[in-house]
Amino acid sequence: MKGYLTTCDGAQFELPTLLRWEFSYTGSVPCDSFTLKCAYEPAMVETLRRAVRFTAREDGAVEFAGVVDECGVTCDEKGLQLEVSGRGMAALLLDNEAESVSYQWATMEEILKNHVAPYGIVCTGYDAVTAAARYRVANGSSQWKALNDFASLHGGIAPYFDKTGALEVKKNRKAARVSIDAKTPVTALAYCDKRYGVIAEALVVDSKAGVKQSVKNEAFCARGGTSRRVFYVPARSGTQAMRYTGEYQIAKSKEGAETLRVTIAGRFSAAPGDIAAVSGTKIGIAGNFRVIECVRRFGESGEACEVTMQRE
Description:
The protein is an alpha+beta fold. The protein is 17% helix and 46% strand.
């Protein structure tokens, strides 16, 4: 693994051999993050002061691209060492506040142009959605919120950043399938099934129009779930927007409800959104799980991967 820093004037600097690194991939929010440690030389001081981006490459392929948040230098019995940490490209949208604006007819193209493109983020593709009447970006909203709210509420889409830092806004993102079974070198695992907070039914109400729409979490209802929540939407939001609101709230409530975390020795490739077929675990858990976070790390004990998954 090789690390590179890019300065504010576009110059690139290759870091010394990485002694320790950790890359966390989520694809969304909380955004991807990285930490690393390598040898330090005094000549690097000005480069560090101007460093704004970090890129990691392995066998020529980009394994992480993001924003530099912090650089630190230590001097002790281990010698001079540099520590760098930061987040994925989604940080640029989280850290920048949007101006309050009301769109008469908002489109995905317009949202990307106004709230994403100004920060140099590359969008590899997006699905157009029905133009939203009276979409409003509230005062104090981040650029991420402006994008995410529009995509999720009006298109049922979760914006996704891949490991190269590119943005994709598509309903049916291509997901790989991976296997975790008795032959996988699993060193640790943890399972949790949390029912509290999971919504069984979302009742979406347009008070002025006198319209109600019920959206149910069928899988949770089949397991005896009974929790109902009521959500109010702006007047004349429309049936489609109301359904998306209910589906979005149910999906958010399920995040982290039934999770499986597995630590695997050595290199293991998985990305958020991938489907893992789990079988042969020592605790008897099996089935299809969707990867929600993958952490790759390397240090004195070698390389390992920690995969956090949610039941499909």
